[in-house]
Amino acid sequence: xxxxxxxxxxxxxxxxxxxxxxxxxxxxxxxxxxxxxxxxxxxxxxxxxxxxxxxxxxxxxxxxxxxxxxxxxxxxxxxxxxxxxxxxxxxxxxxxxxxxxxxxxxxxxxxxxxxxxxxxxxxxxxxxxxxxxxxxxxxxxxxxxxxxxxxxxxxxxxxxxxxxxxxxxxxxxxxxxxxxxxxxxxxxxxxxxxxxxxxxxxxxxxxxxxxxxxxxxxxxxxxxxxxxxxxxxxxxxxxxxxxxxxxxxxxxxxxxxxxxxxxxxxxxxxxxxxxxxxxxxxxxxxxxxxxxxxxxxxxxxxxxxxxxxxxxxxxxxxxxxxxxxxxxxxxxxxxxxxxxxxxxxxxxxxxxxxxxxxxxxxxxxxxxxxxxxxxxxxxxxxxxxxxxxxxxxxxxxxxxxxxxxxxxxxxxxxxxxxxxxxxxxxxxxxxxxxxxxxxxxxxxxxxxxxxxxxxxxxxxxxxxxxxxxxxxxxxxxxxxxxxxxxxxxxxxxxxxxxxxxxxxxxxxxxxxxxxxxxxxxxxxxxxxxxxxxxxxxxxxxxxxxxxxxxxxxxxxxxxxxxxxxxxxxxxxxxxxxxxxxxxxxxxxxxxxxxxxxxxxxxxxxxxxxxxxxxxxxxxxxxxxxxxxxxxxxxxxxxxxxxxxxxxxxxxxxxxxxxxxxxxxxxxxxxxxxxxxxxxxxxxxxxxxxxxxxxxxxxxxxxxxxxxxxxxxxxxxxxxxxxxxxxxxxxxxxxxxxxxxxxxxxxxxxxxxxxxxxxxxxxxxxxxxxxxxxxxxxxx
Length: 779
What we know:
Blueprint: E1 13-14, E2 50-55, H1 74-82, E3 84-86, E4 89-90, H2 95-104, H3 137-142, E5 147-153, E6 179-183, E7 195-197, E8 200-202, H4 212-230, E9 236-241, H5 253-257, H6 266-281, H7 305-338, E10 345-350, H8 368-372, H9 379-384, H10 400-406, H11 419-422, E11 426-429, E12 439-441, E13 445-446, H12 450-458, E14 465-466, E15 469-470, E16 494-499, E17 502-507, E18 510-514, E19 533-537, H13 553-569, H14 585-588, E20 599-602, E21 622-630, E22 637-644, E23 647-654, E24 657-664, E25 668-673, E26 681-691, E27 701-707, E28 710-717, E29 730-732, E30 754-762
Parallel strand pairs: 1-14, 2-9, 2-10, 3-12, 4-13, 5-6, 5-9
Antiparallel strand pairs: 3-11, 6-7, 7-8, 10-11, 14-15, 16-17, 17-18, 18-19, 20-30, 21-26, 21-30, 22-23, 22-29, 23-24, 24-25, 26-27, 27-28
Helix pairs in contact: 4-7, 6-10
């Protein structure tokens, strides 16, 4: 083969092939000429722009101050003034689908992530496994010479792959990111997160003022400084997936106090004030009206003053969290500017991976895990804990009506296939590539448009083959034409939306949608074929208040037919409105790491075992048999625990005696303690739980403690967690994150004896449970 060293590489095939040099016939290295070293460089070499994606979690269009919202976000505003605001950028209706679409340039169902990862099924479009034929942007940029890093929340993993057993193909560190630092589930305790560096679980830093948003920002700043110091000519791609503002709403008190009293007027008045500011700023048309609140939302003035105070505090916490998130992102932006790289950084900041969340229910929650398990919050509990909201002992969420106000001037929110759920305030900032500053762009866009925009801006072609796999075409359209032309037509003319049977279709300004089931409703409103569709002219009706279905029935039918065409094209069918059933792997049809096993053997030091990679002990009888060695003087500490302060269980030793504690959402604590200490030497400790059974999940049962085969005590547990133990994993030999019980210290509860092994055995589970009417699932 001839010398191809000077030919431009074919960047449609990645990785770039190394050039082949002719054979060397010279014997003496002193006389031979070495071939040129193959160096992987971006096509524009030193002129290639850096790329930064920033994504905030669960924030509505009506929140950011620079778009007219009530929350001060100085960094977002700074970039908006120096760049462009987009008021018609759309996401998917919920978290995981948006993230996969953003990172791949394909529709979420095309990438098999039509819903949140934990609700995967066996069907294409919903099996949660990103195809090899869809390479993420990070991999494309990495193979073209970029340094790549991701910080924060990753919620794109199939749940059965979230363990050391993998496979890890879809983990961030194997999806194109040279560096990943963050957490791998849909939510996390922000004071005590389960952190990963690459594919390695690492200890959570233990400092009095620790917060994960500060931590991931520190890591991002450290990485970009180091990367630019070592390779200043190498552009970077950073994906900063913020922990805020997803529940639990956790933020230091000083940020909450900045908003004290600023929401005392309530959600009804707040929506009016926000719309007025939006019109004044021009982020919505001057004729925009407020969409009416759902009937389920109570007027603010219907609550007593003491209740209003609790509800207002919830919004103060959320707003403080949002500003704190902005502050941390601002530190990263400042670090990039200090490096002299901000002008040539294409930075895209999307304020929300979906709209405001209705998951807090009518009065919000102090412990959102309880709400997700169908245990309604009480105002008495909220009143008791009002001063704890936002702090480490809370795991709260604001009331549903604040989520509606977050979507101003629209209503609905997360999970609904309406613009309230998908329209998110967006800023694009790139001084070297965008001449306009502080302008507004109103063209319809979707997050799948950002990958082709980046390729367009960097001069990279869309790859046809990546790592030997022929690629599916990118489904988004570049929005580069809007950067310097406010009147440029959107290249994105058709877009479907779907989640849980809620669906919509957009075409050239027209928009048809149907609400199959609201998140606050116990059952679908109708069968799929009988759903009521609405029709809007989205070009003239920003908040979707004027339903034109009766006036233009033929237009509506045409759009409904178009939805079916797009649904078939992008693997949206079959529609699936199941909720509870889809959290059961066997019913949903997805893989389960445990499969049909009825026992699991564990060993000392196995920590961070996520709920989806752990044997299911809920709603059934089970045994925990621990083979221990107790040293002279006795042992202390946790043998095995699952969960944390929001709910869970722990088998541990206190003052030499074995104890079992069951924490029912922090509201009821059940303890069963052995009356005699564990003997010195080899000991078999067994906890046996006999479940009451019955049609209602989360029932109680009797618990017995055995030492070397002899029963030493028995106790009663009246209630158990029915569906989710939450994001805090199971740990052997310690309770790693927040403690299940205050009977031992957080972070200092390791078992001081030796655990030879633990065997968990489970009995059959009744699959005919009646789900609670108030339970509506997780998004």
